[in-house]
Specification:
single chain; 89 residues; 4 helices; globular; mainly alpha
């Protein structure tokens, strides 16, 4: 089956959760738009705005798809965080 943008983003989000431990409970702690900012860093290739002292920032200049799937997964993480916040109200 051919990969799609949605499937690549879902796989990356799964990797973030299961391999790196960045689940929604962890994401809930980021209350200053860090996830959105990190996504923009991948989209715009900006190291200077990375919200976490360059840990986990892995720009891949020769592989734009990897950068975009990481950005998409970070946006998905922010959406999950927002949904959790709504449930907790």
């Amino acid at each position: 089956m051919e990969e799609t943008g949605v499937s690549l983003i879902a796989k990356e989000r799964d990797r973030q959760i299961n391999e790196l431990g960045f689940d929604v409970a962890n994401d809930y702690l980021y209350n200053r738009n860090q996830l959105e900012t990190a996504a923009m860093c991948y989209i715009e290739r900006l190291r200077s705005r990375w919200p976490w002292n360059n840990t986990h920032l892995n720009l891949t200049p020769g592989d734009r798809i990897t950068e975009l799937k990481k950005a998409g997964a970070l946006i998905a993480a922010q959406i999950d965080r927002e949904l959790l916040m709504l449930k907790r109200k």
